[in-house]
Amino acid sequence: MARKKTHYRSAAFFDLDKTIIATSSSMAFSRPFYDGGLITRSDAVRTAYSQFLFLVGSADERQTTRLRDALSDLIKGWEVAKVKRIVSETVHEHIDPVVYAEALDLIQRHQANGRDVVIVSASVRDIVEPIAALLGADAVIASELEVKKGFYTGEVTFYNYGEAKAEAIRELAEQRGYDLHRSYAYSDSITDAPMLNVVGHGFTVNADRNLRRAAIEYGWGNLRFKKPVGLHSGPPTKSILVGVLAVAAIVVGVAMLTRPAPDREDE
Q1: Which of 1, 81, 108, 123 has the most crowded Cβ, counting Cβ within 10 A?
Q2: How distant is the alpha carbon of residue 216 from its chain centre?
Q3: Cα–Cα distance for residue pair 52/96, rounded to 1 Å
Q4: Is 14 helix (H, G, I), strand (E, B) or coil?
Q5: Residue 223 burial by Cβ neighbours in a 10 Å radius (0-12, 13-18, 19+)
Q6: Which DSSP string do the residues of 44-69 spell out, in sequence order?
Q7: Are 224 and 188 in contact (CB under 8 A)?
Q8: Residue 63: predicted pLDDT
Q9: What whole-number distance in Å separates Cα of residue 10 and Cα of residue 70?
């Protein structure tokens, strides 16, 4: 009697920030959050340095944790419905132009080959899910915030970072029947080493020297993404110009944070 052929499911797990998109997903919405009255100029300056370190790739684990804590304090008291509305209304304007063409092509190729695409991000679910929907992803693993009576309390109930990403991938694989040995993972960050190692095919994206060394040690592939032309190719749009201005604002923020403090409070 012939043995029944086993069909294995597999998935492709993608980090989001600086892997699929050429920026921080949280920072991408800083302007609409400011316009919506959720953050002030002082809030933007207080987080500018950490965001700058993240974008240039020099933020270490301690600084990333400080950024998480700062953002946690910042969102305390925000109305969940308002945040979701702002993200939903502006996701095309602020995310479309910064999607790497190479990442989008990879996503489509994996899906054409029958693999689920899962976005795995340290950013919060209410920001990641609309972006994942825009990309046509099949599932999301993201950080979770506590909500009471429709408002964020500022407590992070699940921080999807480091080893936590790998554990969450294992749990999802168990639920959905993914064969992780046949699955793929992509990230730009050494902190995602557990995520890259939990699958059979790990790939670094735009790796720095330390990440390239780790890729040699662990046997990961290396990819370069160079074209953040987004979902709709064409000349620079208003969204791209806004992104340029946002980076300029960060540089200004860094200068403000590093110069001597005045004798009196500015607020």
Answers
A1: 123
A2: 25
A3: 21
A4: strand
A5: middle
A6: HHHHHHHHHHHHHT---HHHHHHHHH
A7: no
A8: 58
A9: 36
The one-letter amino acid at 72: S
| Nearest-angstrom CA–CA distance, 127 and 142 | 9
Q: In terms of DSSP H, where are the helices of the chain?
A: 25-28, 30-35, 41-56, 61-75, 80-95, 101-112, 125-135, 163-176, 193-197, 209-218, 238-258
Structure-derived torsion over alpha carbons of residues 216, 162, 178, 205, reported in degrees to the nearest 10: -40
Residue type present at position 26: S
- CA 22, CA 99: separation in Å to the nearest integer? 6
Rounded to whole angstroms, the Cα distance separating 205 from 1 reads: 47
> In the chain, what are the domains?
11-102+109-156+179-206+217-258 (3.40.50)
> What residues are annotated to the active site?
15, 17
Question: What type of residue is 9?
Answer: R
The burial of 263, by beta-carbon neighbours within 10 Å (0-12 exposed, 13-18 middle, 19 or more buried), is given as exposed
CB 126 within 8 A of CB 75: no
- Unique residue bearing structure tokens 């208003």: 238
